[in-house]
Automatic annotation (TrEMBL):
Gene3D superfamilies: 1.20.1050.10, Nucleic acid-binding proteins. This is tRNA-binding domain-containing protein. Residues 171-255 are annotated as: Disordered. Residues 179-189 have a biased composition (Low complexity). It comes from Dentipellis fragilis. Residues 206-217, 225-236 have a biased composition (Basic and acidic residues). Residues 254-360 form the TRNA-binding domain.
Length: 426
């Protein structure tokens, strides 16, 4: 038996045969893992033996794995004062090295476990990216198998994501719309001279005004008051600096009002109180961590095909309670033209997409989505019937009036359904 293997065998009670995978790896990886705390080292070896975690697929990845493991062994990566920096590093990442789990992730999870086992919700809410990462790694099958074998040292930790503080998400302020919005607020006029709203009720009001009926003035006042209650900030808030979204909200719904983004499912479970629902944690590249999303896909897409899936998400719908769990987005799925039983598939972004990457409609590239769709105006419901997949399986919006085709894409290419043609998207 080689000398180094005998050293590890003495330091670790795991039978030598469980170390053959480790011994086959570069000496630098062996040396780094040998420095870990005995419990963490056992966890790493067990996960490696179970399969599904790697030592690095390229020389660059292997070097990064060694660097992370050494930092964990030294304790520098998991000190309380380092959590803020670690959180910042993990915001854009699912794993610490590349896009697949490695022994570095197992080591980091193991070292963080004792800290996270003592945190209260308000404390782990303060580090959303680390919390999201920790919860994902502890749920990976080979890691869970190894951790359960060492229980209670690495028991599963449950997080209360449902009651996490509400997150305010606002779209960037369109510069072009700021100037017109300011002019709308400019001079205050008597009620009888106030121009009619640009909403669907504008024509009746104009006709009533032309006829000189006194009721028109009352109707105008009433509708203006209603607009203010529905959040028409651009006309009601002082200063007018954030009037862009309400200005776009008025008038005919257009597809660019919908906020589409690339998402990555980092965890998926069945809803505890609904047989047909999944509860997913989806990374949309936000500093606040993944969003909880509830999808009715249990009977159409196996859970194994949902795990680690890349998709397109609708991110500006109003959050909705789904059997006791609040959903903060919707996955965009293609439904066969022959009905749900004939097949449902998730719309896929181009290869090498990143979480949070913008998805837009061709010829609407310069438009900015609304921060949140007003459910009373049924913008998504109005636009959705035009969503479909073309003969090329490309996702698109077809204008029902002009029949013009606007493909759904990122900067790197079109978004596709795996097999379905002529499918509806919702």
């Amino acid at each position: 038996m080689p000398i180094f293997a005998r050293v590890i065998q003495r330091a670790c009670p795991t039978p030598y045969r469980s170390l053959h995978r480790l011994y086959a790896r570069p000496m630098s990886a062996q040396a780094a893992i040998a420095k870990l705390h005995p419990d963490v080292r056992e966890l790493v070896l067990g996960a490696a033996k179970a399969g599904g975690v790697d030592f690095g697929k390229s020389e660059k990845d292997k070097a990064e794995v060694v660097e992370w493991v050494e930092n964990v062994a030294q304790g520098s990566a998991v000190k309380a004062e380092s959590l803020k920096d670690l959180d910042a590093k993990l915001v854009p990442r699912t794993y610490v090295v590349s896009n697949y789990p490695t022994v570095a992730d197992v080591a980091l999870y193991g070292a963080l476990h004792s800290t996270f086992s003592q945190l209260q919700p308000t404390q782990y809410y303060a580090h959303p990216a680390v919390t999201r990462y920790f919860d994902h790694i502890q749920s990976i099958p080979p890691v869970r198998k190894s951790a359960d074998a060492l229980s209670p040292a690495f028991s599963h930790i449950a997080f209360d994501f449902t009651n996490a503080p509400a997150i305010e998400r606002k779209a960037p302020e369109p510069k072009k719309a700021a100037k017109p919005a300011q002019s709308e607020q400019a001079p205050a006029k008597p009620a009888k001279e106030t121009p009619a709203s640009s909403s669907d009720a504008s024509n009746p009001k104009a006709e009533a005004k032309d006829a000189g009926e006194g009721k028109a003035q009352k109707k105008e006042k009433k509708e203006k008051k209603k607009e203010g209650a529905e959040g028409a900030d651009g006309k009601k808030k002082a200063g007018g600096g954030k009037a862009a979204a309400p200005a776009e909200d008025a008038g005919e719904p257009i597809p660019s009002m919908v906020d589409l983004r690339v998402g990555h499912i980092i965890d998926v479970k069945k809803h505890p109180d609904a047989d047909g629902l999944y509860v997913e944690q989806i990374d949309f590249g936000e500093e606040t961590g993944p969003r909880t999303v509830v999808s009715g896909l249990v009977h159409y897409i196996p859970i194994e095909q949902m795990q680690d899936k890349w998709l397109v998400g609708v991110c500006n719908l109003k959050p909705a309670n789904m059997r006791g769990i609040k959903s903060f987005a919707m996955v965009l799925a293609a439904t066969s033209k022959d009905g749900k039983e004939a097949g449902i598939e998730l719309v896929q972004p181009p290869a090498n997409s990143k979480p949070g990457e913008r998805v837009y409609f061709e010829e609407f590239e310069d438009k900015t989505p609304l921060s949140q769709l007003n459910p009373k105006k049924k913008i998504f419901e109005t636009i959705q019937p035009g969503f479909t997949t073309l003969e090329t399986r490309e996702a698109a919006w077809v204008n029902p009036a002009t029949k013009s085709v606007h493909r759904i894409r990122t900067k790197d290419g079109q978004c596709l359904a795996p097999t379905l043609v002529g499918a509806s998207l919702s």
